[in-house]
Amino acid sequence: MPAKRIIPCLDVKNGRTVKGINFEGLADVGDPVELGARYAEEGADELVYLDISASKEDRNTFTELVARIADRINIPFTVGGGISSIDDASRLLDAGADKITINSAAVANPALITEIATRYGRQFVVVAIDAKFVEGVWRVTTHGGSRLTDKELFSWAKEVEERGAGEIMFTSMDHDGTRNGYPCDTFAKLCEEVSIPVIASGGAGSVEDIAKVLTSGKADAALAASIFHYGETTVNKLKKDLTGKGIEVRL
Asked: Is 11 a catalytic residue?
């Protein structure tokens, strides 16, 4: 079994790293390049940068910032936000991104997943799924969680795998930023439904939360933001704590 990955996530708005609760009430927590460099030095396996207002504001992803990140850090990083075409993906790859993540555009045009995967390989394509639990159903949302769709989490996840996604990054909108833990039963079911890696996002508040989603939740990787941004732990310390719980990570 591959080692579990720890992936700090940096939500970016107007060139700054921000963090909120349920995607609202955003606070500035630092420079995205400097924070990314620090997390890389601490032992992060990968980084994810999300331009969280790009789709909502109909802007292209922050290509210039991506180039600065690529110049500074030496670990793989994924970027997302406002990617709606092959040209967007090409620009980010040329700027130095290792992977791109698409969400709103994939829901609007599922063929885009196949188009990017066919040209660059499925390892380049991460499909992000943001979902809310509404009347007993995990409903997929778009545009930073602001729009409910008629898609259901598990069927959509299977479709994106079939269309060529290399990974799925699932965020529970109900748990995001609350630091109350992940919906592990949902993650476990999702990981059983698909054969590609699943990155758990939304709700990390402690080592125990992350350990649980990587074990009972069966996730391949854990994404976290607040616990790193606010200095409650470091990537290196988190990995040592997980090792102490019998979870294999790269130290």
From this structure: yes
